[in-house]
Amino acid sequence: MRAYAVLLVGVMVLLGGCIGGVGGIGQGGDETTTAGDAAQETEAPPTTTDVERVVNATFVVEDGENVTVELRVADEPEERRTGLMYRESLANNSGMIFVYPNPQQVSFWMKNTKVPLDMIFVGPDRTVLNVQHANPQPNASSDDLKTYPSDGEAKYVVELPRGFANRTGVGPGTKLVFEGPAPTADE
Predict the structure, then answer these.
(1) Is the pTM higher than 0.85?
(2) CATH no., domain 2-178
């Protein structure tokens, strides 16, 4: 019986290490997420969030060319907490979209995130609020991490390889149009 108990405890520890911790400042108000989450250190890190859904969306750029992107959908709390942690690279025009149940002020950081990112904060009307250009901080403690806030209440946050926004002209006022229905979020 003890061997089974040790095995069960070992499996629980392994699963707990892959899940990531809570990085929120508060449930209904500000939420700190990552592009790599805050509260839990792991010895053997996971490769990245295991999201099942992908959507295509187009940024409609005024005075420029529209650009279509492929985005993994982080629409559940655990997916939003884990984000793109530990991922080694991202293809051009490929990234992740964080979807919140309700528009809210959000702030991201780069804990456990290895890829430089553009964080594109999008309001409930699917208009870009602001863009933050983020670099990894591989050895920073949680207290030393730079945060990247939204300029207003965001419903979506799109993370793409750093330089995407400057290269394409995506910025405040740019519209985000989904192919098919817009993704929705679980609480």
Answers:
(1) no
(2) 2.60.120.1140
